Amino acid sequence: MTIARGSLYLTVGQALFVLSGYLVNVGLGRLLGPELYGVFSVVVSLIIIAETLTLIGVPKALAKYVAEHENLSTRPVDEARRVQVSVSLAVCALLFISARPLADLLNDPRLSGYIRLSSLVIPVAALYRVNSGALNGRRFFSRQALALSVFCVSRVFLILGAVYLGLGVKGALWGLILATALAALAAWYLDRPGQEAGSFPLVKLLRFALQFTAFGCTVSLLANLDLILVKAMLGEGMAAGIYASAATLAKIPRFIMSALSMVLFPSIAGAVARGDNQRTAAYIRHSLRIALLVLLPVTVLLSTTSEPIVAFVYGGAYLGAAAAFSVLVFGAGLLALFYILTTAAMAGGGITVAMIIGLALIPVDVMLSRSLIPVLELRGAALATTLTALLGSAAAATYIFAGFRIRVPWLSLTRILLASGILYLIARATPFSGLWLPAAYAGLALIYALLLLLLGEIKVSEVRTLKTALLGQGR
Question: Which pTM does this prediction carry?
Fold first, then answer.
């Protein structure tokens, strides 16, 4: 399956993931109010970090191995599933036992019960991720997107339904657990492997999984540490809830780009395994161009319209998040770029480099946060995340361009910057409010596309090629 068509399937699934995520977060923000919404968001952030120990390494290693070996047997998936379950149960138990100390560390005793309950989602999510990883490695992107869609739809109804019925934060967490279980069943059913053949080096998979887990933990920490530090350093429940709304909105660029990274990883891994250096470089250049085409205008537009979008999505009670959001969205965009760059590095064998860069960023983020949050409060947390992501992206880009001998696309970068700058000026001069905001975004997106056509960054032939790729035959 081509990158274009695979990206389409996963982009549709990821779009549904983003939409359902925002429906859940906005619904919870309005139904629970800033304080309880902050409690829920902090608990989920802790779960995301804990899940990284079990949900990232093995599925990614499996996707890499399956991508490198066509018509693979069921054995790798079975072995990976057993490893996933064992490790996830251990992490679940550890988080359950650590609930009270974590709650005390975050200055909120209420969190302990919620942390214990939420720990149950870890082994369930582990089963989903290993089967989803197998689908990704086999490049069954449509099936992977379908399994993701099951989770998206079910979590909206189960989480919001539970809160609407008056079950509060505990009901929302039960809804999350049940939705994840449904997605796990769907991914298991949709994974149809090839015939039994060959041996399977479990040790090799586990070695790569451990390296990727270490890197995944750093990415997860970078994406969630700011909210946790806000809760720990500012204490006030309202502050965490307000910042959680900014953090949720700021994740738009990262969610948009996650589909690209899902397709990029097995594609580069397969090309490297075949020794096709030319195709590997082409995959990376194409992916970086797509990232720049999307990330620059999205982050500029969201930052420029921070107050209208916060008011439109969350309501007036969360307007205090606008200042932090206007900064944090750039940090989220840079984190998305960092993840794409390191995904390319890991697929090409640079897992150690990606891991070292990621680990080095954690103390930087903590030091910046401890310095800036007491002075600038929520905006300080956003600035710390943005500066950390900038350093990480610069380091990863240096490795990619030097290691794969890829030239910096100065011409494309100049055109995209120019188009994004014009978009910024239009957005600054145009008043946005209320229900007109989505229409305004659609209009600005059309203007941006036309600017790219006029500047020669997008050509009519590329549109035709994309159409052919999307409508052509594939796996």
Answer: 0.77
